[in-house]
Specification:
By secondary structure, the protein is mainly α. The protein folds into 2 domains: 38 residues, no CATH class; 49 residues. It has 5 helices and 2 strands; from the N terminus they run αββαααα. The protein has a two-stranded antiparallel sheet. β1 and β2 form a beta hairpin. α3 packs antiparallel against α4. It is globular, with a radius of gyration of 16 Å. The two termini are 13 Å apart.
């Protein structure tokens, strides 16, 4: 969680003008022939590819973006014990959905 907080406070502002609660976290820069450098939010397939690449490097070859989402949410819950905050973070409409995360949030040895 410390790394994510540092990223949001120090690195993300270099990608976007203003960090809002609904600001995309991960951005990509690439060159386009007629437009020059383009900066856009990463798409799901790019994040999936990064999870697979870095998951293998850290010994979790089956790592998926959902695992990261779930892990961050559970860390917030463990630190603050506030299901409503976690519900907002995850974008759940129903607190019952968030409660399912909290109940299944016990990490086992296979979870990063």
């Amino acid at each position: 969680m410390q790394y994510l907080s540092t990223y949001v406070s120090q690195d993300l502002p270099t990608e976007v003008e203003e960090v809002e609660p609904d600001t995309q976290l991960f951005w990509s820069k690439y060159g386009r022939r007629h437009q020059g450098i383009v900066r856009e939010p990463m798409e799901g397939k790019n994040i999936w590819r990064l999870c697979k690449t870095y998951g293998r490097l850290i010994g979790y070859p089956m790592l998926e973006a959902h695992d990261l989402r779930h892990g961050v949410a559970m860390e917030v819950y463990e630190q603050h014990h506030d299901l409503e905050q976690v519900r907002g973070l995850l974008g759940h409409k129903s607190i019952e959905t968030t409660q399912l995360y909290a109940r299944s949030g016990r990490r086992d040895s296979n979870t990063p």
